[in-house]
Amino acid sequence: MASTSFQVGTTSAASNDSSSPPAHRVAFAFAPAEPKPKPLIRRIREAIREPMAEFIGVAIFVIFGAGADCQVGLSRNVNVSSSPKGEYISTNYGWAIGLAMAVWTSAGISGGHVNPAITLAMATWRGFPWRKVPAYIFAQVMGGVVGAGLVYSQYIRAIDIFEGGRSMRTQATASFFSSYALDYMSTVTCFFSEFLGAAVLAFMIVAATDKNNAAPPVGLLPLVLFLTLLGLGTALGMQTAFAFNPARDFGPRLFLTMAGYGSELYTYRNQYWIWCPILAPILGAQCAVGLYDLFLYNPSGANGSVETKL
């Protein structure tokens, strides 16, 4: 606080008399008040607000996507439903709507990454703080765990009927939550399918958030991502179930471990779970954002740089 001066010992008449001595001024300096500490609950809330947005976003993503997979897949069993409830395109819509809702929920708070591959790409190429990366990725994976758990609790009785009992858990229903490849796919084609899909997704994200490249209003970003993932699922989704997101696959896989699905979740195709739905999307996103920045991105353009959260 700045010092405050008070005039004392004179009258107004004396102050107007030019022959009178100058008024005596006494300055009192006050030390700045100590800032009031924020309540503990508020400090905790501020510390976890961004990771919590990522957690909730991924949970919403998985609820829509895995829920659609369960409804379409389980309803094909006549003991579960008298008629099928949806087709393959239904699952594409489920995951696409889930991504749109996830980004709509979290974009204004955390940037709406909802994908460890996007978080790592933004940290590598766009100045997203590396110190935030571990918390973001942990929150994203845990969101996948919780989202899968909520869907599983909704469909557990149908899964029991489909599998033939509570003690039976196989890849047939695990594939409703995590991604698996078709039998004819080779190791290389599995990897490239996930790499390519994640690369296209990441490329569209940086294009749609580039203010120097006809970026839509921020509120329309969920619609852009809805169309992108819907198109990717329609075009590239059949062969590896289009994870394109490590948290969307690994989080539900962790939940399935707790639900009793066994070691086959991890031994399938020589640890498919790590090199296809985790490493391939991470590398695909890195290459896509690097390609965009190398040839198309102009951070010093008329509209300035994009927000580093996105």
From TrEMBL:
Keywords from the UniProt entry: Membrane, Repeat, Transmembrane, Transmembrane helix, Transport
Compositionally biased spans, kind Low complexity: 12-22
Gene3D superfamilies in alphabetical order: Glycerol uptake facilitator protein
Record has Iron as a keyword: no
Reaction equation(s) it catalyzes: H2O(in) = H2O(out)
Membrane disposition: Multi-pass membrane protein
Organism annotation: Hebeloma cylindrosporum
Compartment(s): Membrane
Main location: membrane
Name this polypeptide is given: Aquaporin
Domain of life: Eukaryota
GO CC list: plasma membrane
PROSITE patterns: MIP
Compositionally biased residues, Polar residues: 1-11
Chain positions covered by the region annotation Disordered: 1-22
